[in-house]
Design a protein that fits this description.
Number of helices of chain B: 11
Distance between the termini of chain B: 44 Å
Radius of gyration of chain A: 19 Å
Mean pLDDT of chain B: 91
Low-confidence stretches of chain B: 341-350
Order of helices and strands of chain A: HHHHHHHHHH
Number of helices of chain A: 10
Mean pLDDT of chain A: 90
Helix content of chain B: 25-40%
Structural class of chain A: mainly alpha
Radius of gyration of chain B: 20 Å
Shape of chain B: globular
Strand order of the largest sheet of chain B: 10-9-8-11-12-13
Helix content of chain A: over 70%
Largest sheet of chain A: none
Largest sheet of chain B: 6 strands, parallel
Low-confidence stretches of chain A: 1-18
Oligomer: heterodimer
Shape of chain A: globular
Chain lengths: 242, 350
């Protein structure tokens, strides 16, 4: 191909160094890990509780949702083992506070019997976020955590798929609620991401990569649900702009 | 189905295009927003060959803009994500256009086959370089005589001679066209010596040595920003084929007797309904396109679902023959001097 004088060689070497594995034994790494790991553990716990709750709104689906919920508990145990392996104590109070706004929105929707909003928050937003974050974490994880995370990410696709299928089957009746729920919750995800950008960077996870991969997964899920790419761009803008 | 992966020529152009396509919210976003934005499948199109065969295709905007070139990770992600989107949409053969194939090659993205849950199937992609090389050679063969240049007596300088397209052009011009002498220009000495040996001829020169001797100059390297060409030192007439990307040679070289032709551009025999080539600043966007894009269209017409152009220095004359014959059969024509609007600016020196 064409020689490319416009690409400075420095940008290439910088990028390769960013791909190297972090030193898992440093205090700085462990400190950042204590919060990121806690978020993951809390996220899996919330996911478990949320699927059980959604099962209350959809009694005919309760069995399937209980099965999904159980998987999340298994993930939680896996990630707890990752922290133990590094000799890190997860900062759970931080994680509870981190999840509070999204948790609160879910609980309100649950109280109002809004299945659509509950599914958007848990099965689409949180799952798409988890999938993209796990994908970005895997190449820079310690060998133990890497193996665990690779197993988890496969399961999360099952959960995302569950939400997609239900919303797709009911799109015409739930469309307006979905758009509204997106507007209220997508900005929260962006804020959550910004809040942990510094810790993620210590783990060699790049904020822009996280956001971009999340938006890719989210866009893909909404396309599957039946939105057009223009509608999704409008919905995504709710998180990106302003 | 064929696919084309492209991008806008600048951030401003991308914003304007997003607005006209109904993505107003993206249009308002800043460069950081665009860096995070996923690729978009923005256009479905149908193309009917001169033979009557109709095929379906899609245009994917990678949401990359040249302003992102200095951000290695962003550029890499943009290209790989666009390829992932093409594959997930079941597109059989997709051409990497503009900077995307340059990024793929220069950042060695062959190592990055796993992208999230998808393993990229390389056989679904082509750089389109074989067709580009063939079209450039065709442009030399038709436009030089039109300017009174007898190729059997002409010296042809190839700038970027050791690249994928450059080496193919050298091979063709020395073995098929039979030019008097090839002047080989590139940055690295060893590949130049290897190429000279393979060709069994050609003279290795520095750029400033080659230009005054050349009747035809084929540029398949991007131009250094600092490059200035003094028209006084060029032969007259001098045919310059601008085969690099982006195409900005006309801003560097102009003057009496200097004829700059956009290289590696083809024109289709009938109008194609798409919105994308306006972004690439084609003079006739309904019919003109990059030859690399046309390669994906040709491979789909011919039912050749394989990475026809891939890797470096794999372009054989046989492959150029094959794609060239298909190009003519299905109604493409290499861009000529007469098809260009104002191809020879009046008496200005660079």
């Amino acid at each position: 191909m064409v020689d490319m004088a416009v690409l400075a060689p420095t940008s290439i070497s910088e990028a390769f160094s960013a791909d190297q594995l972090p030193d898992f034994s440093t205090d700085a790494y462990k400190d950042a890990y204590s919060r990121i790991n806690a978020i993951v553990i809390e996220g899996e716990q919330e996911a478990h509780d949320n699927y059980v709750s959604i099962g209350g709104l959809l009694p005919d689906q309760a069995e399937e949702l209980t099965r999904l919920a159980r998987m999340e508990l298994k993930h939680m145990k896996g990630f707890t083992a990752c922290a133990n392996n590094l000799g890190v104590t997860a900062d759970m109070p931080f994680a509870k506070e981190f999840f509070f706004p999204l948790h609160d929105n879910f609980q309100k929707a649950l109280a109002d019997g809004k299945v659509t909003t509950c599914l958007l928050i848990q099965a689409i937003l949180i799952e798409a976020f988890a999938i993209s974050a796990y994908h970005i974490y895997i190449p820079v994880a310690d060998p133990f955590a890497r193996k665990i995370t690779e197993g988890v990410v496969k399961d999360e696709y099952t959960h995302l798929n569950y939400g997609q299928e239900w919303l797709k089957a009911n799109l015409e009746t739930v469309r307006d609620e979905l758009v509204q729920a997106n507007r209220e919750n997508l900005p929260l995800v962006r804020k959550m991401l910004e809040q942990v950008a510094g810790d993620a960077a210590v783990l060699h996870m790049d904020q822009e990569d996280l956001m971009a991969d999340f938006l890719s997964s989210y866009q893909e899920a909404l396309l599957e649900v039946g939105f057009t790419s223009r509608e999704i761009a409008k919905m995504a803008a709710a998180a990106l702009i302003g | 189905m064929f696919g084309l992966i492209g991008h806008s020529t600048s951030f401003e152009a991308a914003r304007a295009k997003a607005r006209t396509l109904g993505f107003e919210e993206f249009a308002d976003g800043d460069l950081d927003v665009w860096c995070s934005a996923p690729p978009q499948l923005v256009d479905h199109l149908q193309v009917t060959s001169a033979t009557g065969k109709t095929i379906e295709g899609a245009y994917i905007d990678s949401c990359f803009v040249p302003e992102m070139l200095s951000r290695f990770k962003t550029a890499r992600r943009k290209v790989l994500s666009a390829m992932e989107l093409a594959q997930k949409n079941g597109i059989d053969i997709t051409a990497l256009g503009g900077f995307t194939s340059i990024i793929f090659e220069n950042f060695n993205l062959l190592k990055e086959q796993q992208i999230r849950s998808i393993t990229l199937e390389w056989e679904r992609f082509t750089t389109g370089n074989t067709h580009t090389a063939w079209v450039i050679c065709r442009q030399v063969e038709t436009s030089a005589p039109a300017l009174g240049i007898d190729l059997s007596q002409a010296r042809v300088a190839v700038i970027g001679a050791t690249g994928d397209i450059g080496s193919a052009v050298c091979r063709w011009l020395s073995q098929r066209t039979g030019v008097k002498e090839l002047l080989l220009v590139a940055r690295q000495p060893q590949p130049l010596l290897d190429l000279q040996q393979e060709l069994g001829g050609g003279r290795i020169l520095k750029l400033e040595e080659a230009l005054p001797e050349a009747d035809v100059v084929v540029w398949v390297a991007s131009l250094p920003q600092t490059l200035s060409i003094d028209a006084v030192n060029l032969r007259s007439p001098c045919l310059m084929i601008d085969g690099g990307y982006p195409k900005n040679l006309d801003t560097k070289a102009s003057g009496a007797g200097i004829h700059v032709l956009k290289g590696g551009i083809v024109e289709f025999f009938s109008d194609i309904t798409w919105q994308m080539m306006e972004m690439a600043e084609m003079d006739n966007p309904k019919r003109q396109m990059f030859a690399c894009f046309a390669e994906a269209i040709l491979l789909e017409f011919e039912g050749i679902h394989t990475n026809f152009s891939w890797g470096r220095n794999n372009i054989s004359l046989d492959k150029m023959d094959l794609i060239g014959a298909a190009s003519l059969r299905h109604g493409f024509q290499a861009l000529g001097l007469s098809a260009q609007i104002d191809s020879t600016p009046a008496l200005t020196t660079a």
